[in-house]
Amino acid sequence: MKIAVIIAEFNPFHKGHEYLLQQARATTGCTHVVIVQSGNFTQRGEPAIIEKHVRAQTAIMCGADAVIEIPTAYATANAEVFAKAGVQLANIIPHASYLVFGVEDNNLAILKQIAYVKLIRHKEFEKYIKEHLKLGLAYEDAQGEVIKKLLPQIPPAVIAKILKGGNNILAIEYLRELFRLRSTIQPVPILRRKPDETTTTALAIRDAYYQNGPSFEQFIPAHVLSLTLTALEKHPAKTLFESSTLFGALTKLDANQTYNASPELAVLFKRNRPVTYQELGASIPNRRYPIGRVKRLALHATLGITQKDIDFLYKHNHLPYTNLLAIRSDADAMFNELCSIQATPVILHGNKNQPTVNKYCTRLYQIDQTANGLYEIICQQKFTQKPLYVKVKRGRKI
Predict the structure, then answer these.
(1) Where are the CATH 3.40.50.620 domain residues in the chain?
(2) What is the pLDDT along the chain (398 residues), one digit of tens a residue?
(3) CATH number of 3-118+168-220+319-390
């Protein structure tokens, strides 16, 4: 058994994701593909357009063998934390041989250099970052300047180009965590296809759906189109961004407790008191605090995610548990391998390995449960919390 792991959100699953799955198999020659996926809230701090089990089901129908979940506290954090949790999960999967990820620039050597310098010179990196932030630079701009300083042998234009790609930034963080863990997993970058008449981005699909824009059906794989459209009809996704539920805790925002908060941001929230995503986007973001960070902060304040919760991730080399979201119904060998994991037990019925109940495990579980409840309130319906066993036609080419 040789397993390729992909860390993803699939929000929603589209033809570009299907291409990544196909390339994972073709490039690595792996026997199985396991997805490490975010739950009902994503890294942008937004509710997922489709519920997590359904997104996992579409991945199985398009070629994956199993899908496990990143705990909410980390799935909704910045690129460093998201990648760190994803790689820690990948690293405990038996026979995981490859980590496959999309990139805008397929230059693995330079991506590795940037990741390595961020790891071994992290104290200098953080020192220089703080100095640049004091000058009023946004974090992304400050990071670019610091990397240019620490890697003078790489042309500044090349560094600037690489850091413009969101997938490149995630790739760097994946590589940094693989280095830190001294993992034997081999990184495999796949160059993303440019959007055209057959492929697009998940963001473009969400925008088209929310804003009643151009048709997006042609970007969804044909064999999961019906499932995707049905899920969108059942989930009142278009009303998610009108909901005030998400901001019920903002008046309690504590700059010293809420993860990634700051006194300045706390003042901005209390002064403007946004109650919808539209108001949030109109009143809070600026050059120093981009909309992504602001949305994440709003969600973290609502879910009660603190700096201590994130610190747990940095004190350990593996997570206390993961949920199985979906698996091929005929993947008996994969099921048995997942049940064999002791360091990070997979929560599913019949698994003899159970999580060690400690403060780390309890906090992550509480946050997950709160997030699931909030998502159900927003969507105004109940969702299953059990893994899906997906039957896939044997004759279908994957």
Answers:
(1) 3-118+168-220+319-390
(2) 999 999 999 999 999 999 999 999 999 999 999 999 999 999 988 889 999 999 999 999 999 999 999 999 999 999 999 999 999 999 999 999 999 999 999 999 999 999 999 999 999 999 999 898 888 888 888 999 999 999 999 999 999 999 999 999 999 999 999 999 999 999 999 999 887 777 889 999 988 888 877 889 999 999 999 999 999 887 654 555 455 445 554 555 676 788 888 888 777 777 776 666 667 767 776 777 788 888 888 888 888 899 999 999 999 999 999 999 999 999 999 999 999 999 999 998 889 999 999 999 999 999 999 999 988 888 888 998 899 999 997 555 44
(3) 3.40.50.620
* H or E stretch at 323: strand 322-328
Query: Using CA atoms, how far apart are residues 34 and 6, in angstroms rounded to an integer?
Result: 6
Assign 3-state DSSP to the chain and report helix, strand, coil percentages, each to 5: 55, 10, 35
Give pTM, 2 decimals. Answer: 0.93
Contact 62, 224 (CB under 8 A): yes
